[in-house]
Amino acid sequence: MPLCKGGSVKIDPILSSTLLATTLAGAFSISAAAAFSFALLSKVVERMVSLSVGIMLSTSLLHALPEAFESRAGARGLFATLLAGLLAFFVLEKWAILRHSHHHEGDGHHHAHGHDKRAAGKAGWMILVGDGLHNFTDGILIAAAFLADPKLGLVTGLAIVAHEIPQEIGDFIVLLNAGFSRTRAYVYNLLCSMMGVLGGLLGYFTLERAGELIPYVLVFASSGFIYIAVGDLMPQMQRRATLRETIPQVLLIAAGVGIVLFLTRHHG
Q: d(Cα 63, Cα 227) in Å, to the nearest integer?
């Protein structure tokens, strides 16, 4: 960073714009998702788990993974990263079970009958890991866009906010369902959003190398969302096998997919 005549540090406007955009994008999307989730969804957390499944699977399979595989990265390496990610989240889940979650039955969080402490808390911690990686990648993308063109950086930041809000709603649903209090869910998600700032710094200072890593980070983060949705949330939904429960589940999954398709089509 160059020095001004008075000896003060002159901050590159591209760097300051990147830091401001990543900070505001994270804080705004988290706060907007929290306001919506806590105001409208906290009383129907169990049903809204279906919405989060649709959001996580479609974000991963229809947006993040295609973006990664359309890059110059080799397909074999990306598939290896996907495999490594799935296995890593399996190990993380085992660790969470052994360490015990913070959830206990009868804690007032309205979990399904028989939803014991081992089944509830593990998905919450895994979603935070995956979300942090996703935000890290978003920060790199924002930095790359600002370095290319400040106007493009602004548009990219707005687009990221647009697709982050529904994803963060899904995250809040999972955390509430896992026994997190509203305050803990908000604070932990906000801390995860700061990974975007770190990604922005990395993208600004080491853009070429970071750019080569983006597809792999996208795939690894996607593996977490896929594992959580398929390995934890969908089996939980299967415990309610009646037609009366199944129809809303399918409709909410479809709604989650529709939200992501709409936003990626108009803002991607």
A: 16
CA pair distance 115, 98, nearest whole angstrom: 17
Instruction: Give the three-class secondary structure for 7.
Output: coil
Between the CA of residue 126 and those of 110, 172, 174, what are the distances in Å? 21, 13, 10
The predicted model scores a pTM of 0.63
Rounded Cα distance between 54 and 218, Å, is 18
Token digits for 184? Answer: 């803990």
Contacts by 108-111, CB closer than 8 A, 24 or more apart = 109/45, 109/176, 109/177, 109/179, 110/45, 110/46, 111/46, 111/177, 111/179
Distances in Å between the alpha carbon of 47 and those of 87, 216, 245?
A: 28, 33, 9
| Cα 153 to Cα 148: distance, rounded to the nearest angstrom | 8
Q: Which two tokens stand for residue 253?
A: 């999954």
**Tens digits of pLDDT across the chain (268 residues):** 554 555 455 668 888 888 888 888 888 888 888 887 777 655 566 667 788 788 888 888 988 888 889 888 899 999 999 999 999 888 877 775 555 444 434 444 444 444 444 455 566 777 888 788 878 888 887 887 787 778 777 877 776 776 677 678 778 877 887 788 888 888 988 888 889 999 899 888 887 666 787 788 888 888 888 988 898 788 878 877 788 888 888 998 999 888 878 876 755 4
Angle between helix 117-148 and helix 75-99 axes, rounded to 10 deg: 140
Residue 181: closest CA among 127, 233, 125, 109: 109
